[in-house]
Amino acid sequence: MNHRTAVISGLRDLAAFLEANPALPVPRTATVHHFPHDASDGALCAEVDQIATWLGTTVEIEEIPHGHYGTSIHFGPVEYRAVAILSGARARHQAESSYYGHVHPE
Length: 106
Hints:
Low-confidence stretches: none
Order of helices and strands: HEHEEEH
Oligomer: single chain
Number of helices: 3
Structural class: alpha+beta
Helix content: 40-55%
Strand content: 15-25%
């Protein structure tokens, strides 16, 4: 089974499980994220642009503070969201997390 088929099957199985177990609480919203694989910012944005074309949606650019380039579509309270995390944001996150576990305030 390929990755796409496995994800779709898993979503269907989750929906069937939730429907069969009405006492089980469910979240008010759900988001399924797609993150393009690491590449140049141009390639990441091009993939999100193509997804926006397929979805018939626009692209949102969150430059500050995130550095994300994304698009999404909603199916009721469920969202499919494609997000490119641009190189500046990835570098900032890596720099910030490089100290994790090494700084211990006294």
